[in-house]
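Appendix B. Raw example, untouched.
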Amino acid sequence: MITTLGSYVRELRQQKGLTLRQLAEKVELDFTYLSKVENDNLFGPDGKRYNLSMDKLKAIARTLGGDVGKMQLLIGKMPEQVIKDATEKEKASEFFRAIPKEGLSEAHWGELLNYLRNKKK
């Protein structure tokens, strides 16, 4: 099961048959920095955490065929559209505040997803 951005990126890169250096060249990152991404070690010598820019995150996702929304969640960032909805729509904001209180199971998330998919029909 994928639990970190690094493991997700590594798995996708390996599936594509790319080396770290090849991927780094394609997304215009230093391969040592990309190695830190894959090892979930984005800390500087001062102990501060570095953030991967959205542009670079999108470039990695595009190059590897990954899901940028999933990548955002794995590094603790909500997808841009979710943030927009949660801040601009009152009911969406109320919904997101209720999630931690409810303790939703995988089955509950599945029901919500099915509801959203069927709603469009």
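End of appendix B.
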